[in-house]
Amino acid sequence: MSTSGTRKPSPTAPGKLRVVMAQQDFLVGDIPGNAGLVIDTVRRAESEHQADIVVFPELCLTGYPPEDLLLRPSLDVRIREALERIQAAGLGPAIVLGAPVREGALLYNAALVIEGGAITGRYFKRFPPNYQVFDEKRYFADGRDVVVMDIRGVPIGITVCEDIWREGPVEDAAASGARLILNINASPFDVDKQERRQALLERKARENMVSIVYLNLVGGQDELVFDGGSMVYDHSGALAVEAPQFAEGLFPVDFLFEHHCQPISQPLPEAQSLEAKVYSALVMGVRDYVNKNGFKSVVLGLSGGIDSAVTLAVAVDALGKERVRAVMMPFRYTSSMSLEDAEAEAKALDVRYDVFSIEPMYDAFMAALEQPFEGTRPDTTEENLQARLRGVLLMSLSNKFGSLVLTTGNKSEMAVGYSTLYGDMAGGFDVLKDVPKTLVFQLARYRNTVSAVIPERVITRPPSAELAPDQKDEDSLPGYDVLDQILNRYVERDCSADAIVAEGFDRADVERVIRLVDVNEYKRRQAPIGVRITERGFGKDRRYPITNGWKSGK
Asked: Which residues participate directly in catalysis (predicted)?
């Protein structure tokens, strides 16, 4: 293993260094636009913060994750043109940024150092991840070299994202003389990710006696949300600087360099509650998905229930009330309470609100189906027809007005198939797709602490799809407090049925829930994407075959 870089580390000498963490939101695939953002950001960092070094996220030139755009024949040309443009921009500070770089026949996830209009260093990510939502080994080769460079008189080691989670890269850089590590990331959010990052960085900094700049991407990309939360740890393992989560910005950090490269501590942001973090992730995910894909507005079905109430609040907080339309589509089983609560929610958030009864359409369909259904008893077919009529109405409004349909199903429902294909699943983006029902209740209460927009009885009354008289969700499912615990163990932790039962759960409930999860994979494959907030969401994370003979149990 070699140490590369155009300049050897300099002897330790007293000095100062200002690093600006460019925690920004890049658009996947827009290589010219991302290059322009890099140039504009460096100029701002120089003029506003007198930056010595500006650090950008992993693969910022392509955005993350670029997926099969990395296989496009013109990728190398576009990256070369973007880098030439950055080098020709006459930028003063040193720049560390992420880009895909080809060497021979192999493509690498690289961190590049640009100084004085030239690329002065290249580091190739040594551990491209291939788990959860990551499939980098599909595209990238493993890097091998250690890179420690003298930048502005400081010996600095470069690493990329996953490298800091593995043994080797930080240790090798420290052994090669680095006193500061710049680690560039595209690390997606989940509910306790920041705490795991902090524990890791504290250990890595302390054990290797190096300061670490952990620079993270921010923004939404399809189902992923990148939460920022960039951090700086000193060589003793103390957290010196933490940028806010879910916010773009330039965050300058001053270092004093003598024997160690010591960051000057700054006030740390207040710790956020789980509900506050999840709600912020949902808002960012919706905002970026709608805006980056060019939708003018969103429309959703407002039922008077808690899922649609929380979805409406997120949509308004993400986009503003002018870009949100709510539609109530009552039927004979819709309670007056639901009608009242839906109207109250729409008024509280001051959105456009329409009421379209599906009764005439239902009657027309049932008349058309009278002959083929003759001699049969009403069942879920008639219930699902109600949901599908609502889906047709919402999709028609979407087509006519260019609005994205937001669906309102939560993770608990998606897991067990408590949803209707081409009905309540019809739409483009499911805000609560990775949010368990019990957490939906918590989010409703959290949002009401900001301003009361969800009536209390929406939170306290038993959930119901109102597709049949006096219907309640718990008529078909275990209570959500039990259901969500079983789902967490089976879906997110891969526990077997026997292992879940051994924790004290009723075997009949466990086996029933697991069977429902397994047989409804076909539905989830056809469901809209939605914001990922757990370590194991339905989508990139969990890829099970629809057709399979696996038996649950051990």
From this structure: 58 (proton acceptor), 125 (for glutaminase activity), 161 (nucleophile)
Q: What pLDDT was estimated at residue 9?
A: 41
Cis bond before residue 65 (omega within 30° of 0): yes
**Amino acid 223: pLDDT:** 96
* Conformation bin of residue 116: beta by default, left when phi > 0, alpha when psi is -120 to 50: left
Residue 8 pLDDT > 70: no
Taken in order of first residue, the domains within the chain and their CATH numbers are 3-264 (3.60.110.10), 276-473 (3.40.50.620)
Binding site per annotation, positions for L-glutamine? 131, 187, 193
Distance in angstroms (rounded) separating the CA atoms of residues 343 and 302? 9
pLDDT at 232: 98
pLDDT (tens digit per residue) in 441-465? 999 999 999 999 999 999 998 877 6
The reply to whether 161 belongs to the active site is: yes
SS3 118: strand
Dihedral, 428, 434, 437, 443 alpha carbons, nearest 10: -90
User: Letter for the amino acid at 388?
Assistant: R
Binding residues for ATP: 301-308, 408
Phi–psi pair at 20, nearest 5 degrees: -105, 120
Indicate the annotated binding residues: 131, 187, 193, 301-308, 384, 408, 413, 523
User: Which listed residue (60, 115, 136, 161) is catalytic?
Assistant: 161
Residue 164 in contact with residue 172, Cβ under 8 Å? Answer: no
Scan for tokens 């199903």, then name that residue. Answer: 409
pLDDT given at position 11: 39
Quick check: 487 and 477 in contact, CB under 8 A? Answer: no
User: For residue 80, what are the contacts with CB-CB under 8 A and spacing of at least 6?
Assistant: none
Ranges 26-30, 157-161, 169-173, 330-334: which has the least confidence: 330-334
Q: How many Å is the Cα radius of gyration of the chain?
A: 26
The single residue of 60, 115, 125, 383 carrying the catalytic annotation is 125
For residue 473, what pLDDT band results from cuts at 50, 70 and 90?
low
Three-class HEC string of 205-224: HHHHCCEEEEEECEEEECCE
Residues 6+ apart with CB under 8 A from 522: 546
Cα 119 to Cα 474: distance, rounded to the nearest angstrom: 62
Helix/strand/coil for 9: coil
Known catalytic residue at 495:
no
Whole-angstrom distance, CA of residue 407 vs CA of residue 398:
12
